[in-house]
Design a protein that fits this description.
Strand content: 15-25%
Helix content: 25-40%
Shape: globular
Number of strands: 16
Radius of gyration: 22 Å
Distance between the termini: 67 Å
Number of helices: 16
Amino acid sequence: MPAAHINRRTVLFGAGAITLAAACSTERSAADTVQTTYGPVRGKRRDTGIAFLGVPFARPPVGELRFAAPAPPAPWTETLDCTAYGPTAQRKPMGEVTTIPEPSIPGDAILSVNVFTPDPSARGLPVLVWIHGGGFIAGSPASPWYDGASFNRDGVVLVSVGYRLGIDGFLRMEGAPDNRAVLDWIAALQWVRDNIAAFGGDPGKVTVAGQSAGGGAVWALMAAPSARGLFRAGICASGAVTQPNDRAAGLAVADLFTRRTGVPATAAALRALPEHTVLEMQDALQAPGPGSETVPMLGLAPFADGTLIPEATPALLKNGAGGDIPLLLGFTRHEFNMAATMLAQNPGAAAASPIAQAGQGADMAAYRAAYPGADATELAGQAISDTIIRGPSYRVAEARARLGQPTWLYEFVWTSTAAGFNGMAAHCLDLPFAFDLLRAPGVTEAEGTAPPQALADAMHAAWVSFVKDTVPGANWPRYTPDTRQTMIWSNESRIESDPFAAQRPIWT
């Protein structure tokens, strides 16, 4: 008899029952089906393996669960069809304002994972768990830039994670646990621990990785005691490592939310409000304001609540967060320099752009010494990029190296030829190379018509090596205080010793 299956969008993961709106039969191979701890799921067979999309790791965070810790799904018995991406927490179409294509998919079941495996019948494959970026308020695990095809080809299982964003995920509120999105990440990692063997993976060989806000997520997880043991290594690409914020920042954002919206920052006051109303409040919270009334950039982000995340980033650096967990981290040369270019063309944009404001107050004389030959706009751009990403990531590498923690540092310097990117190595442009997806939708628009495959081969191979063996290849030495050897990713990639000596005075 053919196995019955159900579409995951017809399943109500509620108080223990499953409501079926439709059921059908299939003649697909049983090899496309995997038994999870909650029930069987069916994926989509591809050239490089099988993709299981939108697999729930927690119940939809709606109703009484809206601002609660993630709750395990109710078990199911009939095979769940997981051949299309599930709903995303991102609600607004972001394609016109972000480099990465980031689909927004409606629906409540946003707490799901996408599992790309070479072969569910394999044993002991290393696992890469990917947490998307988007400033902690946007981003989509359904992006074609996060497809696992190339990792599958090279013997790695890839898992991408959906999690709560913005107010739902990060606003401190009475009557709800702090850092709910961090709890989502941990719940997803627990699901991986309990289920990934059924997809061919090894729960003892998990690397957690992310870019931008996702890189900040990696750093926060390294700081969270309850995440210890759920992964053995981390990759932090252009990470928002100024987070976790301190507790005072979390309280200040909640206070500003109440003053801006007139609604108390409590679960009771917010739980019954329609989603679109909460999103409008989020926009009001983040709108430019006079002086200190402006919410800090990435104010809705992980913060030190004293329990889940005991300390903010300055203390984490001092106290050696992550211990002996190997960490690969780095940044692009011109992360947010385009903000300065846009600001030069439209000075009025400064009031509306937290990114453009980030470099204000920088010592331009020191920047001229650090970046000789750069014009005023370039220096302003570097001040922005260095303040948000480059300087903080360098400080993480330096702090870990001083403590003898295994660390590898890189800079991505290859510059795009695409219109609008002004020959820059901008934020996000390293990802299609790391994932070896130069033909993915949106890559040509961001990278130009001929991004070098040789660079993708080398960068992707280093990531695969790190996921498999916790070292990014024999030719990439650890970052240490004596040599500060750093990988420079370019058309002619190379190792350089202490390449940021000129920037060190403004970064430390």
